[in-house]
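step=predict obj=No pollen germination related 2 n=731
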Amino acid sequence: MRNENRIKERRRDRIRVKLGKIMQCLCSGEQLRGEEMVPSSESLATKDYTHSVYSSQAGEAERKPDTGNIEEAESSLRESGSLNYEEARALLGRYEYQKGNLEAALHVFEGIDIAAVTPKMKITLSIKGETRKRRSQNFATPPMSIHAVSLLFEAIFLKAKSLQALGRYKEAAQSCAVILDIVESSLPAGLPENFGADCKLQETINKAVELLPVLWKLADRPSEAILSYRRALLHLWNLDAQTTAKIQKEFAIFLLYSGDEANPPSLRSQMDGSFVPKNNTEEAILLLMILLRKVTLKRIEWDPSILDHVSYALSISGGLRALANQVEELLPGVIDRKERYHILALCYHGEGDNLSALNLWQKMLKSHEDPTCVPALLFASKICGESSKCAEDGISFAGRAIESLHGRCDQLGGVANCMLGISLSATSRSCVQDSERVKRQSEALKSLEIAERMTRMSDPSIVYHLCLENAEQRKLDTALHYAKCLLKLEGGFNLKEWILLARILSAQKRFLDAETIINAALDQTGKWDQGELLQTKAKLQIAQDLVKEAIETYTQLLAVLQVQRKSFGSGKKQKENKNHHKNLEMETWHDLASIYIRLSQWRDAEICLSKSEAISSFSASRWHTAGLLQEAKGHHNEALKAFVRALDVDPTHVPSIVCKAVVLRRIGSQSPAIVRSLLTEALRLDRMNTSAWYNLGLLYKDEGGASVLEAAECFEAAALLDETAPVQPFR
């Protein structure tokens, strides 16, 4: 045993001596003796590389070659008995690279004729790959040792790193790609397991796979970078799980934020029915979801930024429900429970499932969780403020948010006061007593004014709600002021601002000015977004008794909606738009029917109603319009049936409640108390309904006696509301 060790040690000493001579020869430009080097057609003398390269290193102590270099070279020498010209330069180049002499290292690497040795490397890799795959040694001897291939691959890689450090990114990428080209052409089915594990071959290949897309990005070649990322992930390189995850994450980030739209991947081995991404965002989402699944399976460590990127990607693509599913699949403890609640609530809220979102935020705001979380309090208040049924809770949440802020942030404080004002306004609309309603309206206006002052009129949403509340309370001059400020603040990019301004002007009976505003908005708006503007314009024309012009405007609106209907896709956002435009089309047919009813053109009105029924037969508005048609014809019983059907569809449909009361009063089939209860219910739902006040006044007038005073008050309220009524409700 000792004799064997002595023999091995002597052999290593001889190899080290030989390596030392090679290094001295390469540094001095001399040629090795024939017995120490395999004869080559090329001179081993580095004619183009003289000792002057090292003049800058004068006075510096000579460094010994790296141990890794020697071991790699020893392996090559043991297998072939010598180092050829290319291998020797590879060794010297690495030595210079490690010393930090990048230009010198690059000069050495450029002297290697890669094209000449590439066929040998390909054959060697191919034979080694087949040997490992079949576990047999009955193959021809490769023209090079696997260690020599490893040494040359490392030289190519270090050449790319040198070029990168010198800012020559395109050349660096081209050099790095040579390694992958050789491996792919030699081993098209991928690298066998543990291939090149006994040398640095696998390590060098892994580094080259990682580096190539980075180099193309630095060279400002996004298309090549994307192809390199796909190449790294689709070919079998024997990458470890962490390296693969790193590449997947970097690729997803590049797809999301690079701004360069790539062609969809063409996957040759795609299984039938498999998902193929159609654009950058879908491909990035696929990669990020794979990473989340790896986290769930505990194949990689948790990286919080993955969730950040997938949240952004799914948010911009309308996939919030999918994001919620991904968050729900994460194992407990991966993310904080409060964060999980908050993300899920945001997803459900974005999908329109406000009840689920509110339940999650309420869980989060319990005393043992985080009762002072301001974002959760604001969102909960926002949801509650949209419904009069839970508006009181909205007031509570907004108040807690204001207390939690302690005046630290004016912007958030402004939002909290705005939410408080919205909730107070919602409760005022359901108040039975006038005194309570007026009090809530005053508090709502005060909160919105505080919000406006705290944000210095810089938040369009706050200014909009302040304008809306003033308009609702018929403070039209103040509302007009805020509407004009809002238009300047956002530059007229928001349609609802134009429409609100036109409605305020119509409430001031300035119909021509309102129509001018709508025409200005139409000039600045694309054809597909003109629906609501055209509807408002038609109503303004009706208010001016321009019936013919109104019909033309409605016809134009229907043409736009018809073209839009044919162009809708299948996405969630597209479905929401489709439903919105379907409702708008139904309203348009009902408005046209109402015009023809006024003109006593029964047949045209019936055609409009049939068009509406084809869209949806389950519509309170359609039954209400049908009742108006029957009432105009003098068919009061048929009209009553239509109004009853409208209320079967929607018991809170105020126009149908009022019309039902009017018909009952006219035919005298019910007691005045029932009619009064219907009109009172209508006013409870909509205090600003002029028709309900007027007909309640007629009912009191018919009763005579002490009711005459109440009738006068009702007529006065109706007259006041009629003077300030917009062509469309402000909300």
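step=describe
Residues 14-19, 25-70, 77-81 have pLDDT under 50 and may be disordered.
step=end
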